[in-house]
Amino acid sequence: MSDEKKMTAGRRDFLRKVGIGTVGAGAALATPLIAPAQADSETEAEKRKARYKETDHVKAYYRVNRYPR
Does residue 53 lie in a domain region? Predict the structure, then answer.
């Protein structure tokens, strides 16, 4: 019985340490991804202008996927 109790405690300690290591690694990886907020550089006129252009690759996409025009 003492062997079973010892093995169970060992497994629990192992899993606890793995869990703590995972959280630490995740925090270390996420830290460089957090960047300070930057202001929007577009003016109001640029925000409202038309952006869609039916270029050759867009036309090819429509043709290949059989979208009606």
Answer: yes
Q: Is residue 69 part of a domain?
A: no
Q: What is the pTM of this model?
A: 0.31
């036309």: which residue's tokens?
Answer: 59
* Domain total of the chain: 1
**What b/e readout covers 55-65, taking b as 16+ CB neighbours within 10 angstroms?**
eeeeeeeeeee
Convert the pLDDT of each residue in 11-53 to its tens digit. 777 777 766 666 666 666 665 566 676 777 888 888 888 888 8
Range of the structural domain that residue 12 is part of? 2-35+43-64
